[in-house]
Amino acid sequence: MSGDLRLRAVVKGVGSALPKRCVTNKELESTVDTSDEWIVQRTGIKQRYIAADDETTSTLGIAAARVALERAGLTPDDIDLVVCATSTPDYTFPSTATMIQAGLGITRGVAFDLQAVCAGFVFAVSTAEKFLLSGSHKRALVIGAETFSRILDWEDRTTCVLFGDGAGAIVLEAQEQPDQGQGDNLPRGILASCLRSDGKHRAKLYVDGGPSTTKTVGFLRMEGKEVFKFAVGQVTDVMAETFAACGITAQDLDWFVPHQANRRIIDASAQKFGIPPEKVVTTVQDHGNTSAASIPLALAVACDDGRIKPGDLVMIEAIGGGFTWGAAIIRW
Ligand code: UT7
């Protein structure tokens, strides 16, 4: 019934943090056999940020979370759930989420990491939403934070030019919202999400080390063409399902904020659904592929420059190693 209320996970604030050092394509030309022209043409990337030794996944996550809390008008004491999406934790354990929790001075609630590689932020948003809708927790910090520079083989030009470091965070709050509504009366918050995994694709994108196998951290390995094909060919299933679950179409979206891996993948996904370029938030040129951090970094840019406003309909979407992939629609 339309007069009924139900809990929704509503976005209260967004923040981001980047390492101090910006590395341009030109700078990479001096260390690896590549060119600014190749990188821009094939990926759209012009620069990326690379963390110094004292900038870690947790320090970047803490900085992003502080901004998100400030924008939300909240303090660390208001948070009872911290979910950090990362594939590059500071340590094998404890989780980066608990380090962020401690760094912010939060002493209650629960904090844990979630690992779904580049789809990690979408998985984390969807997971945090389920906690908030259950009534068990009230306010969540959802963070995507990565230092992929630490797992790159800097002699492999097919991967090292693609990735960067950074972190983004959003605060989600459980709020009573109208159960249903159409058009401008759609409730605020996460309206739907759809997640998928298929482990048979492991060899196309993986890290060749880990505590239980090589006892090392390992390096990222990727069959770029295969990942590209999957990303533009098959991941649209989660987008279609998420639109259907909300009862809206791509034409109703105000903003499409996809994972930022490659400009050509972003353009192709948007075109499939007829989303015009002016509604697509693209930051891959400035940040490179920051894996789980890419979507919240892009959200922060588009909120800070005034594009994403309260009431807007926003779709986030990503695909990562595994493969893992997912999409969510949020009414801001
Ligand atoms: O976050 C999710 C995971 N990642 C992705 O979504 C990435 C998906 N894949 C891609 O974005 C693209 O496949 C890449 C950007 C990785 C590669 O683009 P491509 O158009 O598929 O190029 P390619 O791998 O077919 O390589 C074309 C040529 C090759 O030379 P030959 O064999 O044609 O002589 C490569 O050796 O480009 C060469 N190449 C480079 N040249 C200059 C590969 N890397 C570089 C480089 N600089 N950095």
Q: Features of this protein?
A:
332 residues, alpha/beta, Peroxisomal Thiolase, Chain A, domain 1, five-stranded mixed sheet, four-stranded mixed sheet, globular, binds oxa(dethia)-CoA, transferase, lipid metabolism, multifunctional enzyme, cytoplasm
Describe this protein's structure.
The chain is of the alpha/beta class and 332 residues long. It has 2 domains: 174 residues, Thiolase/Chalcone synthase (Peroxisomal Thiolase, Chain A, domain 1), CATH 3.40.47; 147 residues, Thiolase/Chalcone synthase (Peroxisomal Thiolase, Chain A, domain 1, 3-Layer(aba) Sandwich). The protein is 31% helix and 27% strand. Bound molecules: oxa(dethia)-CoA. Oxa(dethia)-CoA binds next to helix 2, helix 6, helix 7 and strand 12.
Give a summary of the structure in a few sentences.
The chain is an alpha/beta fold. The protein is 31% helix and 27% strand.
Total domains: 2
The number of helical segments is 11
Q: Give the end-to-end Cα distance, rounded to a whole number of Å.
A: 23 Å
Q: Using DSSP, what is the number of strands?
A: 13
- Give the biggest sheet: 5 strands, mixed
Question: Any chance you could write out the topology, listing elements then pairs?
Answer:
Blueprint: E1 5-17, E2 21-24, H1 25-29, H2 36-43, E3 47-50, H3 57-72, E4 81-85, H4 96-104, E5 110-114, H5 120-134, E6 139-147, H6 157-160, E7 165-178, E8 189-197, E9 205-207, E10 220-222, H7 224-233, H8 236-246, E11 255-258, H9 263-272, H10 284-287, H11 294-304, E12 313-320, E13 324-331
Parallel strand pairs: 4-5, 4-6, 11-12
Antiparallel strand pairs: 1-7, 2-3, 6-7, 8-13, 9-10, 12-13
Bound molecules: oxa(dethia)-CoA.
Catalytic activity: malonyl-[ACP] + acetyl-CoA + H(+) = 3-oxobutanoyl-[ACP] + CO2 + CoA
Family: Belongs to the thiolase-like superfamily. FabH family.
Active site: 118, 259, 289
